[in-house]
Amino acid sequence: MNSRKKVPMRKCVATGEMRPKKELVRIVRSKEGEVSIDLTGKKSGRGAYLSKEKEAVQLAKKRNILSKQLETQVDDAIYDELNDLIEKESRLS
Question: Domain range spanning residue 62?
Answer without folding.
Answer: 9-92
